[in-house]
Write a structure and sequence with these properties.
Layout: H1 4-13, E1 24-27, E2 37-38, E3 44-49, E4 52-57, E5 67-69, E6 73-75, H2 79-86, E7 90-96, E8 99-105, E9 111-116, H3 119-135
Antiparallel strand pairs: 1-2, 1-6, 3-4, 4-5, 7-8, 8-9
Length: about 140
């Protein structure tokens, strides 16, 4: 699972989250910050209104939550989501001596390699560079 730090860095760099079933997230409130929630049509579903998206908790008695604004949640993208977001810049995933290595290629042909012990973090570092480049 992606680290909270990298998930925040991606969000702060401008990565947009459109909540969908199967997405994992944390609620950025101290009492719930260690819990990972998963969107599901039956339990937690996103509802979009003119005022924004809320994550609606259906029938949860243990948390006593009705809903949470998506802005108060920290999306924890999965490996497949991170790879998809890299799009055509993604070149390869390999396992090296230092961990997982994600290699990307810029439109100008320049290669970049991002390494981490956690595969999602390697993808996240690559995506973070891409998002930052797109916003500058």
């Amino acid at each position: 699972m992606i680290s909270d730090t990298l998930a925040r860095d991606l969000r702060d760099a401008g990565l947009r989250w459109d909540p969908a079933p199967g997405d994992q997230f944390r609620i950025e409130a101290e009492a719930l910050s260690e819990e990972v929630f998963i969107l599901s049509h039956m339990v937690i579903e996103p509802r979009t209104y003119d005022t924004g998206t809320v994550l609606n908790f259906n029938g949860t008695t243990e948390w006593a939550l009705d809903n949470v604004a998506a802005d108060e949640a920290l999306w924890l993208p999965r490996e497949d989501q991170l790879r998809d977001l890299l799009g055509g810049t993604f070149e390869a995933l390999t396992r090296g001596a230092q961990g997982y290595e994600v290699t990307t290629r810029d439109p100008d042909g320049e290669r970049h390699t991002f390494t981490s012990a956690v595969v999602e973090d390697a993808y996240a570092h690559a995506l973070l560079q891409l998002v930052r480049q797109a916003t500058h």
